[in-house]
Each structure stands twice: as structure tokens, then as C-alpha cells.
Amino acid sequence: MPFADVAAAWLGYAVIAGACVVKLPQIYLMVKNRSAEGLSETSAALDAIAASSFSYYNLLKGFPISGWGEQGIVAVQATVVLLLIWVYREGIRLKRRFCALVAWLAMSMLLLKEGHKEDYKYILVILGTSPTFMTAVSRIPQIFLNWQNGHTGQLSAITFFLQFLGSVVRFLTTLQIMGKDVLSLVSHATGAIFNLIVVLQIYSHSTPSDGRAARPCKAVAIVMATDKEV
């Protein structure tokens, strides 16, 4: 086996190992402070769905786990973050949200069962392209929420930096391991860009300034209203 393939595989496993702790700092902050301040429910939900969809895509395509395994781990951890938001944020109707979660799990099982069949090839296209779209959409509400608040609340710089680093490494290993799969490359590049933006926001204004008024933004107000919808 060529050295490049071996190196890419080991880098892939290193990313998987890192994924085991990528969202733990975020989860720790939320549990420690018993708060979901500064976190967008929309972003957390789309984050979990995007990671899950990308895992399904790679499973159905038969790609080696060294090229995507961290996505499954991230999906689980992102779901935990979402559940913590539901627990710590007041005024949320849990019944509606848990029904949606059960529906997603049921649909996931159906996708994995039927997605490999010839008649369902279009599912692969959807699963391969949707993570890129959802990654962008999941980060945009969080980015605008940070901008409006003037601070990043309970967001963990470590979590987003590790996600940024993982996306960059994954872009490089995908070139070697997965035959330059275009959908995977675009997904990793998109993730790297948006995670870097959040990291820069955290370091530029990680805590609110006294007396600093939130910036008015109608679009963000809509997102926040959606997050707090009852």
C-alpha cells in the first residue's frame, strides 16, 4: 500500500479519535452552568441532521470508515447538545420536539434499509448534497445570533476549533481515501469555512460588554423567535 494511502488512513483514524471529544467541552459548559445561553436550537438541530446524513451517505456508498467515521460520533454528540438546549431553555414544548426526533430516527432506519437499492439512487444524491447546505444553514443562525448579542454565551472555542481542524484534515484525507468524491470535498470545505467564522467570533467577543446593546437585526429576531417557539 502506498505511503500516502497509509498516512491518509491514519490521519482519518486520528480525526475519528478527536471526534470523540470534539463537543464534550460544549456539553461540559452547558451542564456546568446549567444554561444554553448563546446557542441556537436551529443550528444544533441542523448540525445533528447534517452529520447523520453524511454518515448515511458514506455508509451507503461503501466508503471506508477511516474516511468519515467521525461524522457518526459528531451526530450523537450534536444530538446531546440539542437535548441539553431543550432541557435548559425555558418555554420549550418538549412533546413536539421529541415527536420530531422519533420521526427522524424512524426515517433514518428506513434510509439505511432502502437507500442501497438501485431504485433509490437519488437518495444518495440527496444525502450527499444536503450536509453541505445544512452545515451552512446551521452555522448562519449561530453566527447572526452571536453578532446580535455581541457575545457568544456558552459556545466553546475548543469545540469549534476542533471542528474546523477536523474539516481541514478531512478535506485532505478525502482526496486520498475516497477518490476525490466531490460531494464530500465540498461538504468539508463548507464546514471548515463556517466553523472558522464562529471561532473568530468567539475570540473577538467571547463575553458581553457592560451596557452594550444588542444589534438590531430583523432576520436574527425571526431565528430567535423560531428557536423559542412554543
Automatic annotation (TrEMBL):
Highest rank taxon of the organism: Eukaryota
Entry membrane topology: Multi-pass membrane protein
UniProtKB keywords: Membrane, Repeat, Transmembrane, Transmembrane helix, Transport
Gene, per the UniProt record: mpdu-1
UniProt-annotated location(s): Membrane
GO cellular component, one term: membrane
Main location (coarse class): membrane
Residues spanning the membrane: 6-24, 68-88, 124-145, 157-175, 182-203
Entry protein name: Mannose-P-dolichol utilization defect 1 protein homolog
